[in-house]
Amino acid sequence: MRVNFLITFRRGVHLPSSRLAGPAISNKCSALTDEELKIIDDLPLFRQIPIKPSSHVTKARRAYLDRKLPRVRKLFRSEQEPAFLSYHLPGSLPNPYWDAHARAKKDPVTGEIEYSGNARLSVTKLLTKRWCELRDTYDIYSQIPIFEHGQVSVGRREHQRLEDETHATLENAETLRAELGDEIPDDPFHTLAENWYQTTIRLLALFQTGQAREVLCHGYLSSKDCQILQGDVTDEGDVLVSGIIDHLVLKKKISRGLKPTPLMLNLTDGYSSYDMKAVLQGLSASIQEAGKNLEIVVSDVKTRPMKTIPQQQSVVYASKIQVMYYRFFLENLSLDSSRTYQKLLINAQRRGFDLDAPINPAKLLFFIETNPVITQDLRRLRDGTPIGFAPYDTYNEAHDAPKQEYNWEIIKNAQLQQQYAEFFCNWTTPVTLRYFATRLAQMYTTLGPLLSKNLMIEYYSGNTNFHNISFEYDSDELEQHGTQSALFWFGKRNIEPIKPTVRSILTYCKHCDYESVCLWKKQGTEMCKGLGGELKRLHQEANVVKTD
User: Fold this and answer.
1) Is residue 506 part of a domain?
2) Does residue 235 belong to any structural domain of this protein?
3) Name one GO molecular function term (predicted).
4) Looking at the structure, do residues 103 and 187 belong to the same domain, yes or no?
5) What is the domain extent for residue 507?
6) 41 or 138: which carries more pLDDT confidence?
7) Where are the beta strands (DSSP E) in 42-83?
8) Global pTM value
């Protein structure tokens, strides 16, 4: 009741003639100066927003909470108030990344570091203050995937719709997938090869059609210096950070919107012979000329249940920082193809993959049917001919081995055996992850000259792009954010929860799984109530003084 009275009192300050639920307040008392009004506005109690009733908890969500909360309570139980969760990192596990996320342990025999968790981060994981860093901390230590509510599923479908519209799968590829079925592997190793190839041809599509969606990028975060890595990866403590860019748009610099503008490519000969080497050579020449008039804008797509943008500034700010990370990673990957090639190899090694393991031939046939631009490269590898990228060619020469049977015989389909008979033979160099890293590294470097400092967030609701936010890339802001995020992830600073104000508590805590057991929320609420009582007392004393 105290809170309701004081909220009404604040409204009376701004609207002296409004009706008040409590005792009447004279106009003389409410006629405060602008400075006094600002002071009251800044008081935590008066940062009020409408309260919505809590949503119904489904059986699935209740089961999820019953599984998660005991785990978090075991690690974060407050010594002072055992019924609540502490807002400090556990003393026995003080490093969120190494202790809870990657779960690194040293083998007592070999001395090698082994991971039972996820030995890499994503860009979204760096956004620890998008909502509440304390909530994120509890989630990280719970080691349970985030509950997927309905809006997440809606967002995924919308992203898939946009991706399918931009990058339709060819009918031949779908037919091949249906014919070969389980013969086309989809294990993590082959999935990475497919993702790298898809990113390669999608970057090619960026120049052909003016846009590309769901494009991979990555960078590294130094756990020693707590900075986003700009140079080479030289330390095991450099942690892989992966990202997927929702939308890249090639557009005219003078255009305000996101109208895709295809690059006029003179690559007819290259495409007619399915030669990636020729494609890259043609692109290099075309991009030098295009840089005068065209730019590549990095954008992120956000889906909303209604046509409104988030009211929480922390959410909008995090979205902007997220796009800045993508832009930084792309620029870093575009600087030097040889260094980018090495970063991609390290990326695969950090995932535990053998760089020299052959790619399954059925998977390669699917790649060819998806886009045949690698066909001439496959012939080069079969015959032991250089593909035109020094780091890769030099490695193959140094590891020269007798021709070996690249086991294409696993493909039993007679029609495919006849169609691709030229590949059913002994190969000098089987196709490996190293090859896909080569061509992807070269495609990344085509982006550098065209990358724009103008970035964008696209908001969608019901298949409609109802609002866009344009903003500029700020390298200093990103560097500062990267450092703060690294300090958190590597246990070098305390958790920084939301500010303990009424506005924050009503905005953020009501959507939190830990609302009923969060000590930070409990103490913040008590502080606000105490402040409210003190303000009420001061107000009453002021009335007495003025009456006397």
Assistant:
1) yes
2) yes
3) single-stranded DNA 5'-3' DNA exonuclease activity
4) no
5) 62-146+489-531
6) 138
7) none
8) 0.85
